[in-house]
Amino acid sequence: MYKVVIIGAGRIASGFDYPDSTEILTHAHACCHSSAFCLKGFYDSDYARAREAAKKWGCHAYQTLDDALREAEVVICCVPDAFHGQMLAAIAEYSPRLVIAEKPLAVSVAEGEEIQRIYSGKLPLLLNYSRRFLPEFHSLREQIGQYGKFLKGVGYYGKGVLHNGSHMIDFLRFLFGGAQRQEVFPGGIPDFAGDLSKDLVLNVQGAPFYMLAIDSRAVTIFELELFFERARVRILDGGTMIEVYETRASSTYQGYENYALASRRNVNYSQAMAGLLDNAQKFLDSKDALACTLEDGLHVLRLCMEIRGEAL
After folding, report:
1. If you average pLDDT over residues 16-28, what whole number do you get?
2. If we measure between CA atoms, which residue out of 51, 49, 57, 48 comes closest to residue 10?
3. What single DSSP character describes residue 238?
4. Residue 312's pLDDT is what?
5. Residue 181: CATH number of its domain
6. Each residue of 167-221: pLDDT tens digit?
7. Of these four, 151, 161, 207, 210, which has the most CB atoms within 10 Å of its CB?
C-alpha cells in the first residue's frame, strides 16, 4: 500500500463526508476506501484542525510539515489557493513518488511556471480537475465526434474565474482539446475573494462558448449546454446529469429538424475522488498516463489569467 499524507485538513480534504458516508466526497474517504493507499495522517498549519481530521479518519496528526512529508510516498495538497505555489515547492524537496494537488495549480502565471520548473522531469503531479476522473464524461468525449460540427455553447458558473471557472475551462479542454479567449465583458461579480466571476466568450473549435457568471452567494451552479449539427448536450445539476438530444424530422412541419431527447444519464459524481486515486494507482503501478497533468493545469491557469487581465 502507498503511504499517503494530506496537507491541509479542510472540507475537500476531510470535511465533506464521514467514514460511514455512502458517498466519497473527500480525499480522506477515498484513501480509506482504497485497498492501494494507506492514509498516514494530516498536516495543517492549524494543529487543532489536523487533530480533529485525524481523529475522524483514524490516523495521525503531524505537528510539523517535515514530520508529515518524511513519511509520505504520496502527498495530497489541499491548502487554500493562495498557498499552492509555496506548498508545492516545499513538498518537492522531499521527492515523494507522486503529488496530488487541488486546483488551481497556482494563483499567477509566474508561480505556475516556477512549479513547472521545479517539477518538470523530476516529480509527477496529478491535478484534481474532478470531471476528468468520471467515466460518464470519458464516454461523452468519445461520442462527441458523432454529433457533427460544434455550433455554439453556453455555461453557467460562479465563485471566481480561477477558483471555479477554471473547472469549466478545463472541462472544455478535456472534451474538445482546447479553448481560447475571445471576449471578456466589463465588470464582474465579487463572489470569491480577489477573484471576480466574469462573463466571457471562449473560442471552441471556431465557435463561441459563452461563460456566464451567476453569483455564488445566491446559488451554486455548474451547467453547460452544447449545440452540434446533429445533437444538443445538456450537463445539469452541477454535472450530475447528462442529457443528449438528437436531431429528428419535425412531426409537425415538413422539412424542419428539431432536437429531441434521446438519452438521460446520471453521473455518480461521488466517484470522482475514487477515480482520481484509481488513476494515481495505475500510474504508480504501471506508469499509465496521468489524467490531468501539471501542463494541463498551466494551460488553464494562463487562460484564466488572460481573462482576468493578468497574463504576465
Report:
1. 95
2. 49
3. G
4. 41
5. 3.30.360.10
6. 999 999 999 999 999 999 999 999 998 899 999 999 999 999 999 999 999 999 9
7. 161
Contact 92/119 with Cβ under 8 angstroms? yes
Measured distance CA(86)–CA(74) in Å, rounded: 18
Give the chain's domain count. Answer: 2
Give Cα separations from 187 to 190, 197, 302, 303 (angstroms).
9, 9, 20, 18
pLDDT bin (cut points 50, 70, 90) of residue 254 is confident
Task: Give CA–CA dist 1/153, Å, rounded.
Answer: 44
Q: Are residues 199 and 119 in the same domain?
A: no
**310 belongs to a structural domain:** no
C-beta contacts of 189-192 below 8 A and 24+ residues apart: 189/158, 189/213, 189/214, 189/215, 191/158, 191/159, 191/160, 191/215, 191/216, 191/217, 192/159, 192/160, 192/163, 192/164, 192/216
pLDDT digit string, tens, across residues 122-155: 999 999 999 999 999 999 999 999 999 999 999 9
Q: How far apart are the C-alpha atoms of 31 and 45, rounded to whole Å?
A: 21
- Give the C-alpha separation, 41 to 206, whole Å: 47
Dihedrals phi, psi of 228, to nearest 5 degrees: -125, 170
Contact 77, 99 (CB under 8 A): yes
Burial letters 141-180, b for 16+ CB under 10 A, else e: eeebeebeebeebebbbbbbbbbbbbbbbbbbbbbbeebe
Q: Could you read off the pLDDT of 79-94 as tens digits, one per residue? A: 999 999 999 999 999 9
Position 121, amino acid: G
Q: Name the CA radius of gyration of the chain, rounded.
A: 20
Collect all residues with Cβ–Cβ distance below 8 Å to 61 and sequence separation of at least 6. 41, 42, 43, 47, 50, 51, 53, 54, 55
Instruction: Output the nine-digit C-alpha cell for 289.
Output: 498516463
Task: Compute CA 265 distance to the chain's CA centroid, rounded to the nearest angstrom.
Answer: 21
Instruction: Please tell me the distance from the alpha carbon of residue 282 to that of residue 146, in angstroms, as a whole number.
Output: 30
Provide the grid cell at 195. Answer: 477573484
